[in-house]
Specification:
By secondary structure, this protein is α+β, with helices and mostly antiparallel strands. It is 35% helix and 27% strand. The chain has seven helices and nine strands. It has helices at 91-100, 145-156, 174-186, 190-199, 210-224, 232-248, 253-271; strands at 16-25, 28-36, 41-45, 49-64, 67-77, 81-87, 110-116, 122-128, 134-135. The chain has a nine-stranded mixed β-sheet. It is globular, with a radius of gyration of 21 Å.
């Protein structure tokens, strides 16, 4: 994509964030909005569609009301750089991912549309910008979201030959970030992590030996799996095979844990 460089006064080259939400403000309904941090002000966006080139897809952790949340960032190059940020488990994220999984050539512009659903939900429709034809895939709430995200990232060219699901790095110690990302993925209570660390006489994971950090990861994972397996040893053995051994062979830890979680959830659903 070739863009004309406009000379003269302009705004700083910072991305414009669009946050997805079905709401009303001052009598005005909207499905996504900008947020002015300096003025602590929500600015509704009346336009329901964004046309541009999908340039990146990434996961990032954001803290909200004392709790970490995993977000999907849909990065779009247009007249400005836009980042559509939404919860990775939302209907908007899932409907976007299902449609985007059918796109093979991301060098062509797309139209991302926010559509209102029932009970304040928001869905995403995706269109080919040239033909105006909708890119549609049948709804599947049990889709393999990890693989879909990884495949889209790979086609966008932002992933090496062995694609890995990665979280945007934050300016913290790698081991602290590791625990934070895994805890967020598992939705493991922060208080329990703090309590575990207190027993080790530290206040953050990076002060521990790597073996202790691995023990904390295992503790969180097996706590999540406690009600997913009929036999406790099954959870532990599958964790060893699908996570520990996979990471030792070079797999991305977050991807391995996510795949292990999906496998246990599918097994539990099949046993019901």
């Amino acid at each position: 994509m070739v863009t004309e460089i406009k000379l003269g006064l302009c705004n700083p080259p910072e991305p414009i964030y669009l946050y997805v939400k079905n709401a009303e403000l001052g009598g005005e309904s909207y499905l996504w909005y900008n947020y002015d941090i300096e003025r602590d002000k929500t600015i509704p966006v009346s336009q329901r569609a964004l046309t541009g080139y999908l340039s990146e897809l990434r996961l990032t952790t954001k803290e909200f009301k004392g709790k970490d949340n995993l977000k999907l960032d849909i990065v779009v190059s247009a007249d400005e750089l836009y980042v559509v940020r939404t919860g990775v488990e939302t209907n908007f994220a899932k409907s976007f991912l299902l449609a985007a999984s059918l796109v093979q050539d991301f060098s062509k512009p797309l139209i991302i549309v926010a559509n209102a659903g029932d009970e304040n939900t928001v869905f995403c429709n995706l269109y080919d910008a040239a033909s105006k034809s909708r890119i549609e895939r049948e709804w599947n709430k049990n889709a393999d979201w990890v693989t879909i995200i990884r495949d889209i990232q790979f086609r966008l060219g932002g992933i090496p030959s062995t694609p890995k699901l990665s979280v945007v790095p934050q300016p913290v110690h790698p081991q602290d970030l590791r625990i934070k990302n895994i805890r967020t993925l598992l939705d493991y209570p922060l208080d329990l992590v703090k309590e575990w660390l207190e027993f080790q006489d530290v206040d953050r994971p990076s002060l521990l030996h790597i073996s202790k950090i691995n023990e904390l990861v295992k503790t969180m994972c097996l706590a999540w799996a406690a009600d997913k397996c009929e036999y406790p040893n099954h959870a532990e053995s599958s964790y060893q095979n699908q996570v520990v051994d996979a990471v030792a062979s070079g797999a991305d830890e977050l991807t391995a844990i996510n795949g292990w979680m999906q496998q246990l959830q599918s097994a539990k659903a099949g046993a019901v």
